[in-house]
């Protein structure tokens, strides 16, 4: 499952196939437009240089927090202060809006249409995941070339790869070839 915060963190793309290529998508106009559209956020495109610098700092901090939580550690006071630092400029107003089946729900609407507001929403999304007791579902893809951060939405919480068809299959092939090269048959036993 993709979340606002994981989509933001993964704007630093690494070639999962192992070529060593990487790309910072934060500064790319198509990524900015798609990100804002997908998450129903508003900010000027293109983002200003100062906004991109601030977003890189937030991304670096969130990535470190995600890796920490994926490793079984817990949030510390300075981690919450980091999230608060990015949420503080993101002012919202409350509004009652129609919900499903004729219900009414309370929603928080951003006051400003700027990247500071977007960063506040990203930080709040990450913190909300932790507050809901879901920090144990934050994972780093087991493919060392990928480094994708993802939210494990499986029932048994054992997902190892961001995508089983891409990274999962690639790692399976790599393990198979390593065993074959080491003189083992694919079933794990030694060859005759």
Automatic annotation (TrEMBL):
Gene3D superfamilies: Jann2411-like domain (1.10.3300.10)
InterPro entries per record: ABATE, ABATE_dom_sf, Znf_CGNR
Zinc finger CGNR domain residues: 137-180
Pfam family, one: ABATE
PANTHER family: BLL6575 PROTEIN (PTHR35525:SF3)
Descriptive protein name: Zf-CGNR multi-domain protein
Organism encoding this protein: Paenibacillus oralis
